[in-house]
Protein: histidine kinase
Organism: Leadbettera azotonutricia
Amino acid sequence: MRQFIKRALQKSSKLTTEQLQELLVSASGEIERLEAVLDSLSEGIMVLDTDHTIVLANMYARRILPSGLGEQTKEPIWEIVSDAKVGAFLQETLLSGDKAEGCEFEAAPKGVQRLFSISVWPLIRERHVTGSLIHVEDITVKRSREARMRQMESLASLTTLAAGVAHEIKNPLGSISIHVQLIQKTMEANKRLYFDAHPEETMESEMGPAMYFRNFDRYLNVVNEEIERLNHIVVDFLFAVRPMTMNMHSGEINKLLSELAEFVSFELKEAGITCTLELDDTIPLIDFDERYMKQVFLNLIKNATAAMPSGGRITIKTVAAEGIVTITVKDTGLGISEENISKIFEPYFTTKDTGSGLGLTLVFKIIREHLGEISVKSKPGEGSSFIITLPIPQKERHLIGAP
């Protein structure tokens, strides 16, 4: 069709009025078809002229970048991009004439944090640069899928070890615990026999057998504490690899969060921590297992508390948009280093002196069982934000018909 229009234009002086009208109708139809193709893409396409102003932007680009794209403007693209980092990147790339591919930026075009990949290429026509082409792609789901695959691979490796751990650690621990208790009972009997024979001495005596009895009690208490800690690690491990049976019910996530905040309020107050709720009251009912979901948020609150030894603030925020509910648990704690932030959901990874390193692995698994996603944003000294997204049930799905 383009070649036909081109040849017709070369002979336009010889065409009648009717033929010219037909040519214009054909050209208009071709333009509308191309615009429909561009608007149907799930990626942003923008064409700039040599002054870096917008000549063409498809619907996706207008939606995810500033509203000014829908208006006629002679300002360069970086002047109307609302995100400062994206604007600076476009300005530097376009003015230098360089090509850029797959540069990633975080932005929140509709209040929901997304990850975008932006590419810039020169627009070549007949061996001359006539402008620039900008391609914008939402890679949030892609990156989440890649991260999820890594997490699932880690969980799969745990499954192969579960049976061995159950038999080789848990059972001997039970036997050790029983025999430690028997030793303690034997020592209690020895104490009674000794102090009955030596009434002038007490357990408070600074020298003699009383001192050894006290040391013996202290050592056995340490052994008992370590046995209990190891037992918790084994239980968490088995829970992490055992298939979960979800009892899903439609419920109010805001109500659950409010009840949890009330439940932990005394503990947080004792730690000098305030908890603020910013709940979107337009959130519809969603499907979740109340028992497991409580475990998720109690775990996150516990971690946030540990990250704020001198007190601070926890903010729990909910918002509904584009078929999902986003729940953010933010603290003002110590933060997480860049080298650790990609590891925190991995089994056994922990920065604490004590702990199994399976708490966030369990959180990750529970959220995945709810068909949701969890991610984290953090910087050392600036606190951490855990972002959970859960799907809003869709009763009916309709295709958008043509007008």
